[in-house]
Amino acid sequence: MSGSRRVEGGRREPDGFRPEIQALRAVAVLAVVVYHLWPARLPGGYAGVDVFFVISGFLITAHLVKEAERSGRIRLPSFYARRARRLLPAALVVLLATAIGTAIVLPLQNWPQVVGEILAATFYVENWVLAADSVDYLAQNANIASPVQHFWSLSVEEQFYLVWPLLVIAALVLVRRRGHGPVRRILVFLFGAVAVASLLHSVVLTTVDPGPAYFATTTRAWEFAAGGLLALVPAARRLPAAVRVGSSWLGLVLIVLTLVTFTELTPFPGWAALLPVIGTLLVIAAGASGGLLGTARLFRLRPVQALGSISYSLYLWHWPIVVLAAAAVDGELSTPARLGLLALSLLLGWLTKLLVEDPARTWAVLAGARPRRTLAATSLALVPVVVASLAVGGTASARIATEEARVVAAVNGDIDCFGAAALIDAGCDADAAPAGDLVPSTIAAPSDDVNTPECWSRNGEAELKVCSFGPDAAQAEVRIALVGDSHSNQYLSAVQWLAEERGWAVDVIGKTGCIWTAASQDNDPAWLANCAEWKRSLDTYLRGDVEYDAVVTSASAESPIAPEGEDLATATVRGFVEAWAPVADRGTVIVAIRDNPHTRGDYLECIADDPASAAARCAVPIDDAFPFFDGLPGAVERTPGATLVDFTPYFCDGDVCPPVIGGSIVYRDPGHLTSTYARTLAPLLGDAIQQAIGS
């Protein structure tokens, strides 16, 4: 017969068919799906994506090098058109379905975040969105698990597909112009340089900044490069049979070892990713080793091959199904429910492969035409996803804008018993149902925050930003500074009111997660260095020529402090006292606001079920509302002249802490106040500051 088929391990396979790669796909996708459905059963299942990365590097490199050696060129339009036909149709179908599912299932307040991520996934930049959110303290608290966050790995792959052909073209140019030898030799050097640089970058960034390291393309590029380097060594498949058998089984063992022993606490990717990468390389290099002890029989099992064939569509569908189902039932998914979701994911994966993937890849109208027709069709196919996403997002934005206008009207108007006034003013009933809609509503609450980048040093920024409100300091009777992390800056609306209504000069100085303390916080090295630089600038500023009547501060009790040989409580209190001492010694009063309580994670959904009864029905016991040690009261006791402001009576009524008080939603996320409710505390805060400074 002609060379259309080859013999492998005693069986004939279609030319170019690699059963071991299909089997690896099956292992990888099953690992990820099981991890998402039963994370405790397969704690390292997230490493399945690394298996995919190596496979992609191997296959794409093999294809590009074959074309380069055959024709001496790489036809980029054709390459990108094939990738588009292979990957985009199924992805766009899932994204469109997810946009519709978001509008049906998820609470409206979550739509803006999810729509933004759907658009990011559509254009394959979701990994960078998640990398940015991973270092954004406020985003971590406010964002939900998006139904498209699994597109981060697909985004990394697409970015690889954009860059990798360019390296092959560069190698071809060097061969033509400078005669540097065979293209494979040059590519070994180029891919090797990428692998070494990316691996070192991955190791360093995983150590100092693990959040972005997990999602960054640059920390995963070496995995693709490793697969690419293997593709450049055709002799790998001519290894002795015994070596191939041993290599194949060893590779599987390394992959399985990764899946069952790694956990979320494993620093990843970094050095740890070498285990699944090497395992995948060994399996691919060995092939489907035949013989009695070989892996061929296992790899060629029909269920294994079938699962590998639908791995892409299965990966696309499983996570939106899990997230939307969990949101729909509003609770923990039972084992039968999870099994049902697994079955549904498999069914949709198979149908998508049959009805979308295969027809789109082989459709003669596109496959037999010039690449520009495919690219034009791709552009048109993007339209429904973008339109649906913008429609969902636009609906949410319009509602949120309306709600924000209601917030402004509420805090500027004379509404009896609104917000904290329900607990302050005589004659108010804090438990009474609100006469109208809540302000802010459940829709607007997550975005009810007046902080801006101009007044706030975010993660990755060490610059000390000082925002001033009210009259010039020389003209004001009282000058204060609000200093600290987000639990301090959440009172920005309150001090703005003091600046406007009482004519105080107010400076606001804050940084994400960075507490005004001399104690070391427990975080990764890069974050700690950034925070330390900001605090040095803060200390220099507060010890300089500026003079305040009072420095107001608060701090998240949830932010971990590194005890450094002490017990946590002692280290926490000591850190505050030492940081405040130079300012207090100058005669400036320290006003510390005790940290606010935390509410239940599903408080917005609970409120939305019945706003009129939410205050009582959605409240949490006061003991559960303060789960962390707060060192501020102890620090105030040890700091001469310091004052503690305890708003607990205005967050909690008796032995419970409701998420709705006086018709106002108290929290914008489970641990932060809405600016609206914080604004209703302004008179109390102003009176406490005036009493502390004796004016």
UniProtKB/TrEMBL annotation:
Ranges of residues in domain Acyltransferase: 20-352
GO BP term, example: lipopolysaccharide biosynthetic process
Molecular function via GO: acyltransferase activity, transferring groups other than amino-acyl groups
Annotated TM spans: 21-38, 44-65, 86-106, 159-175, 187-208, 214-233, 245-265, 271-294, 306-329, 335-355, 375-396
InterPro entries (alphabetical): Acyl_transf_3_dom, Acyltransferase_3, SGNH
UniProt GO cellular component terms: membrane
Annotated SGNH domain residues: 461-685
Keywords, ordered alphabetically: Acyltransferase, Membrane, Transferase, Transmembrane, Transmembrane helix
Protein transport found in the keyword field: no
Top-level taxon of the source organism: Bacteria
PANTHER family: ACETYLTRANSFERASE (PTHR23028), ACYL_TRANSF_3 DOMAIN-CONTAINING PROTEIN (PTHR23028:SF53)
Name under which the protein is recorded: Acyltransferase
The organism's taxonomic lineage, starting at the top: Bacteria, Bacillati, Actinomycetota, Actinomycetes, Micrococcales
